UniProtKB/TrEMBL annotation:
Keywords: Signal
Keyword Signal attached: yes
Protein name: Ribonuclease 2, putative
Pfam families linked to this entry: Ribonuclease_T2 (PF00445)
Length: 260
């Protein structure tokens, strides 16, 4: 009788365990464009945005590993997830909101560049989420969590002097009610550590709403609360022209001199 129950349980749960282990949380990743755009790896056009934008919302295991992407043979986490060629049509009703809050940093003014980034996120993180056939709700869940936990309202404002990592963690905790993950990169040649992303974690639910502590507190080039982290301001749009201003004035004066 006992063995029989075990067998029954195995048969019931087997279908859920063959594909992949169930994941535990969603990680909402918010990026600070000035830090992504000033290290020379990414040419950001047409301007460097100066507000927090979404990178993605990632199904994640308790051990901090992201759920691997859908693969029909190697990772069949679901049956028939929405295919990438349907993404544009499925997201058309929220395209403008996504363009504003989930833009491609490579060129947010170009619809196709944005779409490529959304398709990438769908393929790598959406198809094995709890919304394999509902990309609209998947993308909306991230928009909604970003809106509810708006980092623009914290005291972490861009400035020249660095913050202590603990100040950043505490500021996010104040609005989120849980410990975030702080990700940094390093600016060259200054060697300054900069805030690259703030990641917020939520208990697995459909939709995810309840914050929880992230599995790790630091990643990238910062790793402790005493680190000094800069939150760089966006360059002003006319930035690259500023050094030429004196020459322009000189030329103008020169030409005027000739005319007069
Ligand atoms: C993390 O946990 C998942 C699910 O249990 C497992 O598949 C994966 O191999 C683990 N990764 C690491 C690096 O331990």
């Amino acid at each position: 009788m006992h063995n029989c129950l075990l067998l029954l349980a195995a048969l019931v749960f087997l279908p859920f365990t063959v594909g992949q282990a169930p994941f535990d949380l969603y990680k909402l990743s918010l990026r600070w464009p000035p830090s992504e755009c000033n290290i020379g790896q990414l040419k950001c056009t047409p301007t460097v945005l100066n507000y927090w934008v979404i990178h993605g919302i990632w199904p994640t295991y308790e051990n901090n590993t992201a759920v691997p992407k859908y693969d029909k043979t190697n990772n069949p986490c679901t049956h028939n997830p929405t295919k990438e060629n349907q993404i544009q049509a499925k997201l058309s009703s929220i395209k403008n909101t996504l363009t504003q809050f989930w833009p491609s940093l490579r060129n947010y003014a170009d619809d196709n560049t944005n779409l490529k980034d959304w398709i990438h996120e769908w393929k790598f993180h959406g198809q094995c989420s709890d919304y394999p056939t509902d990309p609209l709700s998947y993308f909306n869940s991230a928009l909604s969590l970003r809106r509810k936990n708006d980092l623009a309202g914290t005291r972490i404002q861009p400035r020249e002097e660095p913050y202590q990592a603990k100040e950043i963690v505490d500021a996010v905790k104040q609005i989120l009610g849980a410990t975030p993950e702080i990700t940094c990169n390093t600016h060259r040649p200054s060697g300054m550590i900069q805030l690259r992303e703030v990641r917020m974690c939520f208990k697995r639910a459909k939709p995810p709403t309840e914050p929880r502590d992230c599995p790790i507190q630091f990643s990238g080039t910062c790793n402790k609360e005493s680190d000094h982290i800069r939150v760089p301001p966006a360059p002003s749009p006319g930035h690259s022209q500023v050094p030429w201003l004196p020459i322009n004035i000189f030329l103008l004066a020169f030409c005027l001199g000739i005319v007069i």
